[in-house]
From TrEMBL:
SUPFAM superfamilies membership: Subtilisin-like
Domain annotation Inhibitor I9: ranges: 33-109
UniProt entry keywords in alphabetical sequence: Hydrolase, Protease, Serine protease, Signal
Positions of the catalytic residues: D138 (charge relay system), H203 (charge relay system), S531 (charge relay system)
Protein name: Cucumisin
GO BP annotations listed: proteolysis
Amino acid sequence: MIRHGCILKLLLLALNVALLMSNSYSQGDEKEYIVYMGDRLKDVSSTASLYLSMLRNVIGSNVVPDSVLYSYRRSFSGFVVRLTEEQARNLAEIGGVVSVFPNKKYSLQTTRSWDFLGFPEQVRRATMENDIIIGVLDTGIWPGSDSFSDAGLGPPPSKWKGSCQSSANFTCNNKIIGAKYYRVVGPVKSPEDVLSPLDTEGHGTHVASTAAGRSVASASLYGLGSGTARGGVPSARIAVYKICWSDGCYGADILAAFDDAIADGVDIISLSVGNFFINDFYEDPIAIGAFYAMKNNVLTSNSGGNNGPSAGNITSVAPWLLSVAASTIDRKFLTKVQLANGNLYEGISINTVDGANEMYPLIYGANAPNKTANITGSISRYCRIGTLDPNLVQGKIVVCDTLTNGNGPFSAGAKGAIMHYDFFLKDVAFSFPLPVSYLDDDKGIDILRYINSSRNASTSIFKSMEINDTVAPYVVSFSSRGPNLLTPGILKPDLSAPGVDILAGWTMAASITGVPGDNRFSPFNIISGTSMACPHASAAAAYIKSFNPTWSPAAIKSALMTTATPMKAPTNSSAAEFAYGTGNINPLKAVNPGLVYDANQTDYVKFLCGQGYNKITLWIMTGDDSTCSNATNGTVWDLNYPSFTLPTASVSTPIDQIFTRTVTNVGDPTSTYRSVVSAPAGLSIQVVPEALSFNSLGQKLSFNVTVGGSISRSMVSASLVWDDGVHQVRSPIVVYVVASS
Ligand SMILES: *[C@@H]1O[C@H](CO)[C@@H](O)[C@H](O)[C@H]1NC(C)=O
Ligand SMILES: *[C@@H]1O[C@H](CO)[C@@H](O)[C@H](O)[C@H]1NC(C)=O
Ligand SMILES: *[C@@H]1O[C@H](CO)[C@@H](O)[C@H](O)[C@H]1NC(C)=O
Ligand SMILES: *[C@@H]1O[C@H](CO)[C@@H](O)[C@H](O)[C@H]1NC(C)=O
Ligand SMILES: *[C@@H]1O[C@H](CO)[C@@H](O)[C@H](O)[C@H]1NC(C)=O
Ligand SMILES: *[C@@H]1O[C@H](CO)[C@@H](O)[C@H](O)[C@H]1NC(C)=O
Ligand SMILES: *[C@@H]1O[C@H](CO)[C@@H](O)[C@H](O)[C@H]1NC(C)=O
Ligand SMILES: *[C@@H]1O[C@H](CO)[C@@H](O)[C@H](O)[C@H]1NC(C)=O
Ligand SMILES: *[C@@H]1O[C@H](CO)[C@@H](O)[C@H](O)[C@H]1NC(C)=O
Ligand SMILES: *[C@@H]1O[C@H](CO)[C@@H](O)[C@H](O)[C@H]1NC(C)=O
Ligand SMILES: *[C@@H]1O[C@H](CO)[C@@H](O)[C@H](O)[C@H]1NC(C)=O
Ligand SMILES: *[C@@H]1O[C@H](CO)[C@@H](O)[C@H](O)[C@H]1NC(C)=O
C-alpha cells in the first residue's frame, strides 16, 4: 500500500514513467499469500498445529513450522505463507478457509490547521481525553520529539493491553504507550529500515503528532509555518504500529497491525495508507481489518488517496471506514524569483534558503545535456536525474520544463531550479533538496526568452513567504475523487480535513526531503497528502469519543459528517461531493450533533447481502456464520448512512427511489426537528414524516426520503437538514449518472 503523504514522489512517478509497481513480494514461482480464516478461533493454543496440518494437505509433508510466516490470532484468524498460485487455489478450497489472496503492496499516501478549523488550543476538553488511545499504523515514530513528551500524563489507561518493543534507540513513555513493528515478508531492503518502531522516514511522526501531539511553542520549518504545533487531542495516548518500510506497506503487515491494535484496546485507528486499485472487500486487508475494528467498537479513519482529480479514483470505499479527502487551509507558501533585469515572478514551493541577495547565472536544462550519457536537449530540458551535465549547471540556476522532485539539478550541483508546467499541482507547495520555485508555464517561457536575449542571464530565488489564501478551504487537486466504483450508492469520500502544507513533527533520522545529500534535519516539516488529512479526522473522532465514550464507530462518523462545513465546489470541477464528501470537519460542532445515524455489524451485514454477497463471501467479510435471508436483505438505500447517493442510468431518466433512515437522539431529550430540503429544479425530494418529535435521549425515529424527477446534468447536489433550532443535522443528497462500463 502507499503512504498517502509522498504525493510528489507518486504523482511524478505516475506522470513521468510507466507505473511499475510490483504488487507482491515474490520468490521464484511462489509468493506470499494471506490466508484469511474469519473470526478468532476459540482455542488459540491449537492454531499453530491447525495451520500446519492444513498446509500439509496442500503442499505435502515438507511443510515445516517456519512455513507459516505469521499467524493472526488475537482479533481474527488466518496466516501468511509462501505458495505457488496452484497451491493457493487448493488451499482456498479447504473448509475453514474463507479467502486466500496475494500479499499486495500498498503505500503511504499544523499548527495553523486546527485554528483554521475553528478548534482553538484552549477548547473545552473532557478529562476522558487522557484515556483515549489512537492507534497509528504508519512508518513508526520519533519518540524524541517534543510533541511526544509525557510530562503530566499518568500511566496508560487500564484497558491498554499492548506492549512496547523497546530497543537501544526506542523507548515508550506515558504518551507513546505502545509500539511494535511488523515485517511479515522477507528481510528489509534498505539500511534506513531499522528493525524497531523508530521512524526513519518522517511520515509516521508527522501523522501521530497531527493527531495527538503535545503543544510545542515556536515550532517551524526553518522559520516557515512558525507557530505552536499541536495535535487535535494533545492528552490522548499514541499506540504505534509500524507497517511501512522503504519498499512500501504490505497487506500482511497491515492485517497483523489491525489484529494487534484491536486486541490491544485502541479507541481509534488512524491509517494513512491505501492502494491504487479497488479490491473487493473480502480481499482488501484494510476493509477486513476495519470491519473487525468496527465489530470491536473501534472506528478506522483512512486517507482517501492521492490519485485525484480524475473521477472515480478513490479506493477507500467500505462504508465502515471513515474516508478522508484533503482540503487546503488559509496559509499558502509562495516563492519569488527575481531576474537580473528586475522582473519578479511568484511561484509555489517550500524553499528554506534565503537567496534574495544572491544572483546566480541561469541556464536552460535543454542547453546542458549530459553528453556522456548520450542525452540530448530534448531530454535534458526536463532535468531528470542523470540527464544534466554537471560542468554546465554547477553553481547555476537551471530552468526545467516540468515539475520534478529536483534530484536532477541537485545531484548535478546546481544552485537552484526554476520549474514550469502548464497545469498540475498548482495548489500545493513541495519541498525540494535545493532552492526551487514552481511557476506557471507563461512565466517560465518568459524566463526562457530572457535567457535567449541576455548575454549574462542571472536570477535569485527568495526564501518562501506565507500568504493568506482567502478562498480556502477547497479540496486540493491530488485528493482522490468519487464516485465509489465498488458501491455506487455510497458516497465517498465521507468528508475532508486539512491536508495541504501541514506543519507537524518529523524524525531526526532523515532529512526533510529524504534525498541523500540534503542536510536539513528539522524536528518539524511541512508536507501534504490525504495522509495529513486522515489524522485530523482521527483526532476529531477521538475528541468526540472523549465526550461520548459509549458511541459506536458509526455514531462518531455520523457526528463528524452531519456537522461538517459544506464546501465550495473545487476550481472548475463538477466533482463537488465527490471531492469533499459532506464537507470540512468541524470538531467542536461534532461533539454535539443533535442526532446521529447509527449502524452496527447487523446493518453492514444486511448491506452486504443486498450487494449480492452470497453466503460464503459474506462469511468471508464478517468472519462469522452470518447468512443472507429475505429478512436480512437490505438494499444500499436502507443502510443507515449519513449521506444519500443515487446512481442513475442517464441524464433525464425518470428517478424514483426511497431511502429509509433512522436517527438517534443524542441532543436534548425533548426536541422537535423539522426537515429542510434544498434541491435543484427538476429533482423532487420528499421527507416523510416532515418533522420528528423526540421525548427522550437515545430515542430512535425513522423517516423516508423519496427522490423523484430527473437530473439535467451528470451530477447534482441537494441536501436534507434536520433542524431543531439548535442543531442542524445536514446530509448531502447526490444524484449522478453512473458511467457504464
Ligand atoms: C540505533 O541504535 C544502534 C545501536 O544502539 C545504532 O547503531 C544505530 O545507528 C541506531 N539507529 C538510528 C537510526 O539511530
Ligand atoms: C484514475 O482514473 C483514470 C480514469 O478513470 C485512470 O485512467 C487512471 O489510471 C486512474 N489513476 C490512478 C492512479 O488510479
Ligand atoms: C553513446 O553513443 C556512442 C555512439 O553511438 C556509443 O559508442 C556510446 O557507448 C554511448 N554511450 C552511452 C553511455 O550510452
Ligand atoms: C552523466 O552520465 C554519465 C554516464 O551515464 C553518468 O555516469 C553521470 O553520473 C551522469 N551525470 C550526472 C550528473 O548524473
Ligand atoms: C530561444 O532560442 C532558441 C534558439 O534560437 C529558440 O529555438 C527558442 O524557441 C527560443 N526560446 C524562446 C522561449 O523564445
Ligand atoms: C553576470 O552576472 C553576475 C551576477 O549578476 C555578475 O556577478 C557578473 O559580473 C556578470 N558578468 C558580466 C560579464 O556581466
Ligand atoms: C486570513 O484572513 C482572514 C480574514 O480575511 C482571517 O480571518 C484569517 O485569520 C487570516 N489567516 C491568516 C493565516 O492570517
Ligand atoms: C473549466 O473546464 C472546461 C473544460 O474542461 C473549460 O472549457 C472551462 O473554460 C473551464 N472553466 C474555468 C473557469 O476554468
Ligand atoms: C445492532 O443494532 C440493533 C438495534 O438497532 C440490534 O437489534 C442488533 O442486535 C445490533 N447488532 C449487533 C451485532 O450488535
Ligand atoms: C438479496 O438482494 C440481492 C439484490 O437485490 C439479490 O441478488 C439476492 O439474491 C438477495 N438475497 C436473498 C437471500 O434474498
Ligand atoms: C424471499 O423473497 C422472494 C421474493 O421477494 C420470495 O419469492 C421468497 O418466497 C422469499 N423467501 C422466503 C423464505 O420468504
Ligand atoms: C417508508 O417506506 C416504506 C416502504 O418502502 C414503508 O413501509 C414505511 O412505512 C415508510 N416509513 C415511513 C416512516 O413513512
